[in-house]
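> tool_call: predict_assembly(chains=two)
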Amino acid sequence: MRIIVNGETREVGNQLLSEILIECGYRQNHFATALNGVFVHKHQRKSTRVMSGDRIEVVTPNAGG
Amino acid sequence: MTMLELYGRSFENRMLLGTARYPSPSKLAEAVQASNTEIVTVSLRREAGGSHAGEKFWNLIKSLNVTILPNTAGCYSAREAVTTAQMARECFQTDWIKLEVIGDSESLHPDTAGLVEAARILDAEGFRVFPYTTEDLVVAEKLLHAGCEVLMPWGAPIGTARGLNNEYGLRALRSRFDTIPIIVDAGIGLPSHAARAMELGSDAVLLNTAVARAEDPARMAEAFAEGIRAGRNAYLAGPMQPSDMPRTSTSLIDKADLRE
């Protein structure tokens, strides 16, 4: 199915958020996620089902003021 | 020495430093060390799969052994800011959040209505909110009512280096909320601006670009730390009041009569 990850359209084969993240190359531990603008706790990723057209955000620590 | 008290934690240093826009990670580390800053601000940004930029930055920040204050920079609604705060809590393992809800993309003026709304939600979720606000007394009152125990009024709009645009407003805020920690955030360009904020009775100053974009960030960080210390000491020392009338400092009593 086609979804949007960090603003880019991606074709993915998995449906669970945890699996999609691995499929998209997120293997490190230090990131946080949101699905369609709603925070998804890391413990909820395995039970969160992603639908076609959904927007996933993956963010990591960065510099800030 | 009186300590800076923020949500039950005590700090000796009254300078909070942003981590953005330094020429290199080592320049950032040098600036933190030169100023003895105990609190730094950080953010969250998108990362591509397979990249380790975030992890590298996180390791750098951890090596500095400072308290981390994540921000919600760039958020234009309460909902967006709340989600960002929730992600920051998981990433940075802290319930502290510098809450920014921006209302105008040109002036970067805070959306104070959205700020109060987000502060109320985050307080209910157990966050310790540091609201980036204006010097508006009514907004400040609402933020405190929403659960904030710190106020972060701007000196001037973000990144302008104009110093304190409204000293009267900051003095009024200090006077009205005399037991609430006030951190002047944004618009600070020079150590004299920071010293002035402290002379007015502010409890701390948060700055970033003025240090990061200096030719020598470490030296500028040290200069700011000195300015903030000087301003704090001046406030505690009780400055004399200005007067329209001149008054000699040298006594005229027992001055020799040298008239011809």
